From TrEMBL:
Protein name: PaaI family thioesterase
Gene3D superfamilies, per database record: Hotdog Thioesterase
Domain Acyl-CoA thioesterase-like N-terminal HotDog: 47-135
Keyword Hydrolase: yes
Keyword annotations: Hydrolase
Organism: Caulobacter hibisci
Family matches, as InterPro entries: ACOT13 (IPR039298), HotDog_dom_sf (IPR029069), TesB_ACOT8-like_N (IPR049449)
Pfam families for the chain: 4HBT_3
Domain of life per record: Bacteria
Amino acid sequence: MTFQPPDPFVPHTRTSPLTAPWEPIYADIRDDRWVLGLEAREAHANSRGGPHGGLIAALADNAMGLSCGVRMRREGLAFNGFVTVSLGVDYLAAPSLGQWLDFDTDFIKPGKSLCYAEATVRADGKPVARARGTFKVV
């Protein structure tokens, strides 16, 4: 049986060499942000058999950066991409393989030179991490 993401998630099209081994990754592209998601599988595991903290950090970073772009466009601010200046992650609980992880940016403060964002990472709807990012506007 093939995994089906929850509605309204669709395949994530902003792939990169880093995330290629983690596919499939899904996106819920909203008017005010991107929400990324995936089913935690063995390819995402650390040595203890759970989703690796680096995976959580990287996808939270990705979701926040994409969400900064949505917000900048909405506010008519010029940009040509973002570079992560600072990233912090607080791990609240240990998710398990087989769970649906979603990376939801719930705070964005855009500016001309920096964009600030925060995200909540959930496993089957329960918070497992909080992330904060500062992004240089290119």
